[in-house]
């Protein structure tokens, strides 16, 4: 149960994610800034950009809510990073179709 | 000339399609299939989509023999659907849009189905029956909107079929509806089921409860009924599948016919995953022919959720000048068909 002295204090977490370039960091920043936290989650999420580092700050009244918000943020972040990794290399894979990882449904 | 890439992932299918001026260049898809007796849940479905989506994007570009630079617009499903899987498509679409410096467009899933069906079949101004696992609507176009004439007041017709398939432990591969259709072909005794049409609307949840009781009386929720009061005859799975299909499809045919009469239309287009059921098509065709009308339907490549329909509807929107600010590229679980301004049709 919640300890009395922890009531009304804020739980916070800051995540700093470096990218290969400032451009990729900005792409991730714009992609991940679109989705707002659900109203009933009671979590504040703030994204900011410093050069090639994306910074995300979370604050919440309850650790449980903080964990939920961070977990779902990480899922989106990883997907965005993977997409940049596979499709972001300039000119290198302009012939994108030739990579072997895919099959037709 | 508009060349569009579309990403669809609102339910258990993840698909990518590429279309250029109405010419289909690529249409790839993966389905998340759960064990018999289980449905697909949002979290697990999103995980499946995350694992498949990037490979599918590669595959679609390869199949279309295109470079990212050849595309004009990236489209994704904005809703309606389950939020976690929708978000997978949206995140990738946004990232690709910024990486490749292409505009981004959010597409209504239902409008995607309608436009794909019209494009493939050539139907001009049909009454649309949109039947899938999440939606059941009778739709007619009027004055730049796809207007909903009738719909389900509880669960979708596909949801009713899927959940019945779970009760009798049918396989979800390739889809529960397909397996019900195959069993139904062997049924010959019609079991009487409730028939629930309310004006232009239909309801399936009561039918589902009723047939669940027949299929498995031990699950009976109404505990007040004493078991010895009645001896239920044993019904075969085949007969139950047959009876369920006949009943719910008759309901759909009825409201579709009424919409035709109301709008003075003589074309019907069936879209959505349940739309590839051949028995539904057959019943609808009989009704259409009796009225001197014509039925349009597509096969599983275009009926069942696919990326191509999102690409095509997006391309139509793009051609008509619809643009979306990047900040509005969120997803929404509820997004009604009639909320979309049909800017690309002028009739």
From TrEMBL, chain A:
Matches recorded under InterPro entries: CTAG/Pcc1
Compartments it resides in: Cytoplasm; Nucleus
Source taxon at top rank: Eukaryota
GO terms classed as biological process: tRNA processing; tRNA threonylcarbamoyladenosine metabolic process
Any Gene Ontology CC annotation: nucleus
Major localization class: cytoplasm
Gene3D superfamilies (UniProt xref): Alpha-D-phosphohexomutase, C-terminal domain
Keywords, in A-Z order: Cytoplasm, Nucleus, tRNA processing
Positions of transmembrane segments: none
Task of the protein: Component of the EKC/KEOPS complex that is required for the formation of a threonylcarbamoyl group on adenosine at position 37 (t(6)A37) in tRNAs that read codons beginning with adenine. The complex is probably involved in the transfer of the threonylcarbamoyl moiety of threonylcarbamoyl-AMP (TC-AMP) to the N6 group of A37. LAGE3 functions as a dimerization module for the complex.
Protein family according to the UniProt entry: Belongs to the CTAG/PCC1 family.
Protein name (Swiss-Prot/TrEMBL): L antigen family member 3
Automatic annotation (TrEMBL), chain B:
Enzyme class: transferase
Keyword Transmembrane helix applies: no
Protein name: N(6)-L-threonylcarbamoyladenine synthase
UniProt entry keywords in alphabetical sequence: Acyltransferase, Cytoplasm, Metal-binding, Nucleus, Transferase, tRNA processing
Lineage of producing organism: Eukaryota, Metazoa, Ecdysozoa, Arthropoda, Hexapoda
Cellular component per GO, a single term: cytoplasm
Positions that bind a divalent metal cation: 109, 113, 130, 305
Cofactor(s) of this protein: a divalent metal cation
Cofactor details (free text): Binds 1 divalent metal cation per subunit.
Family as reported in the entry's similarity comment: Belongs to the KAE1 / TsaD family.
One Gene Ontology term of the molecular function aspect: tRNA N(6)-L-threonylcarbamoyladenine synthase activity
Matching Gene3D superfamilies: 3.30.420.40
GO terms, biological process: tRNA threonylcarbamoyladenosine modification
Domain (Gcp-like): residue spans on this chain: 24-311
Gene name linked to the record: LOC115632329
Reactions mediated catalytically: L-threonylcarbamoyladenylate + adenosine(37) in tRNA = N(6)-L-threonylcarbamoyladenosine(37) in tRNA + AMP + H(+)
Cellular localization per UniProt: Cytoplasm; Nucleus
Superkingdom of this protein's organism: Eukaryota
The enzyme's E.C. designation: 2.3.1.234
Organism field: Drosophila lebanonensis
Record: residues binding substrate: 130-134, 162, 177, 181, 277
InterPro entries: ATPase_NBD, Gcp-like_dom, KAE1/TsaD, Kae1_archaea_euk
């Amino acid at each position: 149960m919640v300890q009395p002295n922890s009531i009304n204090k804020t739980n916070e977490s800051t995540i700093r994610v470096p990218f290969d370039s400032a451009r990729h960091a900005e792409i991730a920043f714009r992609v991940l800034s679109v989705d707002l936290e659900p109203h009933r989650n009671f979590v504040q999420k703030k994204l900011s950009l410093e050069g090639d580092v994306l910074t995300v700050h979370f604050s919440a009244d309850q650790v449980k809510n903080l964990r939920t918000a961070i977990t779902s943020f990480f899922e989106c972040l990883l997907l965005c990073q993977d997409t940049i990794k596979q499709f972001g290399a300039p000119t290198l894979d302009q012939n994108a179709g030739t990579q072997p990882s895919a099959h037709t449904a | 000339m508009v060349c569009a890439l579309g990403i669809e992932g609102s339910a258990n299918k993840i698909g990518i399609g590429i279309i250029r001026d109405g010419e289909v260049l690529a249409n790839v898809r993966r389905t998340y299939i759960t064990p018999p007796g289980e449905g697909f849940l949002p979290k697990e479905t999103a995980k499946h989509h995350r694992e498949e989506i990037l490979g599918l994007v590669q595959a679609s570009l390869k199949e279309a023999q295109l470079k990212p630079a050849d595309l004009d617009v990236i489209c994704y499903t904005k809703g309606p659907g389950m939020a976690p899987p929708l978000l997978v498509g949206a995140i990738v679409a946004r990232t690709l849009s910024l990486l490749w410096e292409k505009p981004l467009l959010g597409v209504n899933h239902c409008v995607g189905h309608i436009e794909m069906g019209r494009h493939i079949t050539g139907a001009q101004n049909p009454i649309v029956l949109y039947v899938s696992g999440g939606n059941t609507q009778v739709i007619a176009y009027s004055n730049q909107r796809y207007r909903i004439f009738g719909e389900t007041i509880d669960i979708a017709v596909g949801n009713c079929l899927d959940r019945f398939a779970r009760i009798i432990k049918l396989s979800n591969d390739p889809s529960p509806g397909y397996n019900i259709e195959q069993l139904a072909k062997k049924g010959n005794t019609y079991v009487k089921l409730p028939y629930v049409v309310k004006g232009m609307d239909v309801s399936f949840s009561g039918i589902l409860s009723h047939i669940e009781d027949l299929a498995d009386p031990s699950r009976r929720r109404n505990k007040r009924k004493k078991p010895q009061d009645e001896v239920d005859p044993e019904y075969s799975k085949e007969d139950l599948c047959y009876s369920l299909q006949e009943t719910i499809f008759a309901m759909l045919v009825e409201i579709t016919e009424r919409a035709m009469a109301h709008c003075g239309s003589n074309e019907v287009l069936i879209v959505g995953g349940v739309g590839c059921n051949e028995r539904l098509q057959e019943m609808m065709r009989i009704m259409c022919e009796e009225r001197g009308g014509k039925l349009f339907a597509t096969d599983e490549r275009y009926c069942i959720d696919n990326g191509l329909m999102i690409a095509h509807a997006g391309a139509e929107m793009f051609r008509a000048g619809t643009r979306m600010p990047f900040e509005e590229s969120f997803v929404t679980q509820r997004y009604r068909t009639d909320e979309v301004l049909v800017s690309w049709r002028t009739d």
